[in-house]
Amino acid sequence: MLKLSNAGGQSREVQHKLTIDTKANVQGLLCSGASSAGWCWQTPQASANLADLAFLDGTTGWRVGERGEIAKTGDGGVTWVAQRSGTLEDLVSVAFSDSKNGWALGSVDVVLHTRDGGDKWSLSRIPAACPRGSAGRIKPINAEIAYLSGSEVYCATTNGGTSWRKLDREPTHVSDTGELWYFDSASNSILKSADAGLTWTLVLALGAGNNYLSVQILAPKGQDVVVMGIWSKGTRTYRSADGGLRWGDVINTAPGSYDNLFLRSAGSNNNRLVLQTDNGTLYYSTDDGKTWNTEQGPFKAGLLGNAYNNYRIYLVQGDTFLAEYYAPPDGMYARPRYFRLSTDVGRTWTAMTQPEGWIYFYGPVVAKGPSLLWLKGLNEHRLSRDGGQTWPVLAAKEAFRVPRSTSFSDALHGLTVAGRTVSETSDGGRTWTVRRDGSSASSIVPQVQLIDAKLGWLNDATGLFKTADGGRTWTAVKSNPGLSWLSARDAQLAVGRTAAGIWQVTRDGGGSWAELKGLNAVTGIKCILFADANRWAAIATDGRHLFSRDAGASWSTATVGTTTGTAVAGLAPLWAPGARGMVMQSLNGGEQWATVAIGNADARVLAVKFFDARIGWLVGEAGLLMATTDGGQTWRVQASLVQEDLRAIDVVDAKTAWISGSGGALLSTASGGN
User: Fold this and answer.
1) Interval 256-312: pLDDT, tens
2) SS3 of residue 621 by DSSP
3) How does strand 592-597 pair with strand 582-586?
């Protein structure tokens, strides 16, 4: 309210409603809607323990991680939109055959399949005879066919994952179009299956008496097939342009090394072949293997002042290769690493920028596209979108994954407590600064509650504390009854329950505590709600709720039915979880409660919070999240991103709210959850 006056003594009041745009709070986070809309993961970052990535090109990709988390990006990993997997099992790998058809493997026996780019995922189980969890890798072919491989076992599905069948042999090569190729060492012949391993057809006899060290096959699209037999006198190369029906003349040659040769690529031209030895040397041929050129790789003697034989070379795509060098360990874990990139089959190499803290990254640089490189680390993941020149953080792990409590005084300032550590934010939860450090988890679920921008309460296993500076410093409350649950109305009035189940009240900011004797005569009270300073409501687990008109001095039994009671002027409406599928509302301080159906008879609500008389949210078990804009008459589902229990809501305005989950999750919205 602004009062304006002029020199003549006239005045008028002008009222303006100020709305803070909080979209910046969630910009770039993993959200349930596009353009940072809906509910977004703030902390811990979703898929912080990232397991796998799958990119179709430089922009479109998916990532999977803990607790069934799946997200999709359309901008090369800059922003991500969450997808609902329908499982809490950790996901360990993901692969897509095209923009619609994708598969993801769980850590135990779950396999997920989508036919629409991830808008909907269907779940099935992998039988024990097939590779499962982190031991398995999936090769998607189309909407119906996919292969599982691992531990020399192959399985196939031809009905979209409904059932899986173990193959009688492990294919030597699987084409992107679904054909299987197999080298039969007993007969020195190549077999092909066009029906997912049900039947096999002889397509090439390599000849008796040839003791091959290895036989390798490349047929990425099923028609252009390269078979290379490596033996003591060099290599024999066979080529077919029609899927193995007819074969060209055999080419015999000796590239210069016979042991441990790996056929890496047919290159960008049909007659180009690339071989790699186990120590990284590359051989490339542009004439079907008749002649070979040699490239010794990027780490030649003297290049970096050491003898470089501890490195690997990875095929990125076509003629592009990535080389990675592991230096001798510098200490227990740190192993200096160097990276080079070649786009001409190793003829020339370009140095890649080392990411900050690069000595602590442990996984190989995994190519996910022509310019996308993924680097795993001890504490974070990096995704380069420019061939290794820059390495922005993709996901960072958090130290705590325990139940947390969060409280915001406005759209920007808030506190969160995890274990015994209290952190403060001044930017709506995008970044957090530790204000009270605790290295171990709390034996009780900690609680933090801000009364305003300065005043707040904290209760954890070490004691009861108050802050007068927004959480920067904390002072122990001298008189502490040992609370396991706390609810404060203001800086002076608070109630709590001890570990022994005794309800206590303080009216002087914690200076002294008194037992709420009338309340302690009743068992099963789980929380106390304040309608105002004098009218309180006690919610019981068995439905025998109580109310008090004299600030807890005496208590009476409330009624529960279909009426909320006559509204009392100046009294805030009360909301509380009810029986399954229900919430409760009271307009007279908890004396009368009306049960309200939420439209899901099996749902168990754990918390309800309203911004005003019309706008509110409820949360509960298994990721339950619903919203109302008509004062609770109707409730609609909102996507919560999780399947774990959601336990608390903190609302600051009609669009800005936070939700705390049982696994340590903190969700945020700047769009009212829409």
Assistant:
1) 554 556 666 544 444 567 776 655 566 777 776 677 777 656 655 434 434 444 566
2) helix
3) antiparallel
